[in-house]
């Protein structure tokens, strides 16, 4: 069964080389004790097995002390009397009547082929099968192909389990999505605290899929790399790196908008002024990961996987995000601020700029100021005497 399973595995796409050290063709002997005859002749079954153990394998009796040294007492047949299985005919066992009976009258044996070592996994007898993914396939794809093969080939009564790194990968695979979600949630909360807004951070976070798209595209066009744990580490790193470029644009544009400048003009000015810092920081980081991209020698695949993931993601985040992030910022700002608030900010542009210059330490909030002015205007309408 193991041989057929390994042969089918080597024919399956996605599995490069499957093999097993299990063998059931080692020459052995199957020894049978005639229990009915033992019962008729008054011989205890345990005495039969104890006799075979003592003569063939050795039996511990006790210890004794001589010349201040301890010695073990072992009972065992001499080498010349335990070389062949036929020598067991020379052994005798005592029955209940104190008669010595030859062991050959109570046992029988025959040559067979069996496994030299029987291993167990989760209590059940098992045979270990090892292998590696085929070139161009990830370890996850190879494991999935192996599952489908086992469901198709193994007969009823046979099962399979994964162990070692394969088991750990399957256990961690379902948790990867939660790690990505937690990373994005934390970045969103930090941005919400930075901008004091629940809507503006979305224009920054929408730059993350662009970087992830570039990383996945890079891994797809390089057959020697796969989407393994190192690639996932690179993708998590890209969440912060891609958001960094978007922050440079959004933060400057938001300050201009809160200062009363027109939305489109503020966004274009932010992109113009922040383009050089974005290019400089992104190119510096891309050049820093080049040693990982060009890595050779032991562990080179792991380093190249992280390097190419970050390299492709940063190229996409740098070349595409500078066009997409401003558009997202304009759309989200219009939806979150509203026409009235934007009109109010533009109407009080000079006043807000003056406040920002003279009282920056006071942290004037245009939104709060707008609400206070709006409330004051409504009070004047309700109470004519205040006019």
Summarize the structure.
The chain is an alpha+beta fold and 387 residues long. The chain has helices spanning 2-11, 35-41, 45-57, 139-153, 164-173, 176-195, 201-205, 208-221, 229-258, 263-288, 290-293, 300-319, 321-347, 349-358, 366-382, and strands at 15-19, 26-33, 59-66, 69-75, 92-94, 100-102, 107-114, 119-121, 124-126, 130-133.
The number of helical segments is 15
Shape by Cα distribution: rod-shaped
Largest sheet: 2 strands, antiparallel
- CATH-defined architecture of the largest domain: Up-down Bundle
Q: Write down the domain tally.
A: 3
**CATH topology value of the largest domain:** Multidrug efflux transporter AcrB transmembrane fold
User: Can you tell me the CATH superfamily of the largest domain?
Assistant: Multidrug efflux transporter AcrB transmembrane domain
Q: Name the structural class.
A: alpha+beta
Average of pLDDT: 81
According to DSSP, the number of beta strands is 10
- Beta-strand level of the residues, as a percent range? 5-15%
Distance between the termini: 96 Å
Strand order of the largest sheet: 1-10
SSE arrangement, N to C: HEEHHEEEEEEEEHHHHHHHHHHHH
Poorly predicted regions: none
């Amino acid at each position: 069964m193991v041989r057929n399973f390994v042969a089918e595995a080597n024919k399956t796409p996605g599995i490069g080389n499957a093999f097993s050290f299990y063998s059931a063709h080692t020459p052995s002997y199957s020894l049978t004790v005639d229990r009915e005859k033992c019962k008729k002749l008054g011989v205890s079954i345990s005495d039969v097995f104890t006799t075979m153990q003592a003569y063939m394998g050795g039996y511990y009796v006790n210890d004794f002390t001589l010349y201040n040294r301890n010695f073990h007492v072992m009972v065992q047949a001499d080498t010349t009397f335990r070389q062949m299985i036929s020598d067991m005919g020379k052994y005798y066992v005592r029955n209940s009547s104190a008669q010595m009976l030859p062991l050959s009258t109570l046992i029988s044996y025959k040559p067979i082929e069996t496994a030299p070592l029987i291993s167990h996994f989760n209590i059940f007898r098992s045979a270990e099968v090892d292998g590696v993914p085929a070139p161009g396939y990830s370890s996850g794809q190879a494991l999935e192909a192996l599952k489908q093969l086992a469901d198709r080939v193994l007969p009823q009564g046979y099962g399979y389990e994964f162990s070692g790194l394969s088991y750990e990968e399957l256990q961690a695979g379902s948790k990867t999505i939660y790690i990505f979600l937690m990373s994005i949630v934390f970045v969103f909360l930090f941005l919400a605290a930075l901008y004091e807004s629940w809507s503006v951070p979305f224009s920054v976070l929408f730059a993350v899929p662009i970087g992830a798209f570039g990383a996945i595209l890079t891994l797809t066009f390089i057959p020697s790399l796969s989407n393994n744990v190192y690639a996932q580490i690179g993708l998590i790193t890209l969440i912060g790196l891609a958001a960094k470029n978007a922050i440079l644009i959004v933060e400057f544009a938001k300050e201009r908008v809160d200062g009363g400048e027109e939305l489109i003009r503020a966004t274009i000015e932010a992109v113009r002024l922040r383009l050089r810092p974005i290019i400089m920081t992104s190119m510096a980081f891309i050049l820093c990961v080049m040693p990982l991209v060009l890595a050779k020698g032991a562990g080179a695949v792991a380093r190249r996987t992280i390097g190419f993931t970050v390299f492709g993601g940063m190229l996409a985040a740098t070349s595409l995000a500078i066009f997409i992030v401003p558009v997202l910022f304009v759309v989200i700002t219009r939806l979150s601020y509203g026409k009235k608030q934007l009109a109010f900010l533009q109407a009080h542009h000079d006043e807000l700029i003056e406040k920002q210059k003279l009282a920056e330490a006071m942290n004037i909030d245009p939104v709060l100021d707008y609400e206070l002015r709006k409330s004051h205007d409504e009070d004047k309408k309700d109470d004519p005497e205040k006019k």
